[in-house]
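Lecture 7, part B: from sequences to assemblies.

Below are the input chains for today's worked example.
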Amino acid sequence: MLGAAIIVFRESLEAALLVGIVAAAARTLPHRNRWLAGGIVAGILGSVAVAMAAGTIAEMADGMGQEMLNAIVLGLAVTMLAWHNIWMSRHAREMISDATSVVREVAEGARELSAIAIVIAMAVLREGSETVLFLFGMMSQEQSLGQVLSGGALGLAAGIGVGFGMYAGLLRVPVRWFFTVTAGLVLLLAAGMAGQMARFLIQGDIIPSLANPLWDTSAWLSASSAVGTLLHVLAGYDPRPSAMQAIFYLGTVALIAVGMYLVRSPAAASGRPATT
Amino acid sequence: MKRLILALLCLPAIALAAPPEVQLVIKDHRFQPEEVRVPAGQKIKLVIQNQDSTPEEFESHELNREKVIPGGTTANVFIGPLNPGKYPFFGEFNEKTARGVVIAE
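Predicted structure of the full complex, as structure tokens:
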């Protein structure tokens, strides 16, 4: 039972933290909860489907189906996070300064929320399919259904608890800093996911690793330590990254940062005459 | 254009001149063999056959790899090129028993 709890906690932690951060980043958007819930449900349904098809997926693309699927799921999530950040950098200021503008932006907000639902669904799908597969495996073993399910529920509850903690913590950030802090977190999350995507493509021998590893910091901060795990989830910390992973990571940071800068300038410029 | 097509056709040939394969078996939640010796400085293809009915996740922080292997299936994991040294790996779903190490030399 404890085994199931620990595995489910570890798998759900990453998705829960991401949901917490994204939920906070989208807190000004109307009907947010409906889209969040929709994303979570879609992710869970997708997880069960992927777990059922695991054998088939694994054999696709010369045995590299799993790497391809992971890379595609991560790539989609990175794209949606990038879009979220760029979109928010254009609208965040109006949202703080003028509550009525939120109502005006509903149409655009709905499109933004569907991007958020996709991010959530992708995160739940990636972590969830492994969890479902693992739980199926435990059930087919010596363990009883009740034990596995109660262990899994315990782990899931702990994971959700951490996600809520992240969300509640972010809501305490003063409004002035709020969008900067959540945008920074989302930027790091997206970059970390891009780095992981590169790792799967290297593992599947689809792209070269270039230098491997580029550096090794595992001696003083192991990926399996508590701090290492947290940093891995939040900022994509990897104690032994390859050069290709670093390129994906930094490339994503640069692309999103440039995108945020570019859309913000005209908005700020056109906003100025209206306020004077 | 023809040259480009020719070059593209050669790509699979490059892939065929590909890394040496190392076989691993998962049975009763254990890796066999538990110690694998591979040449350093070279890409290696691990071919991992899961003979258990339950899924296993091949994972190694040192090798920077993780892959779920459903019960009764075979998975490939590319590793390296590695510097000489020891690279432990484990099965995340059965961490107590499923342990092994890749030794690059």
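Note for the exam: The first helix of chain B runs from residue 2 to 16. Keep this in mind when comparing with the next example.
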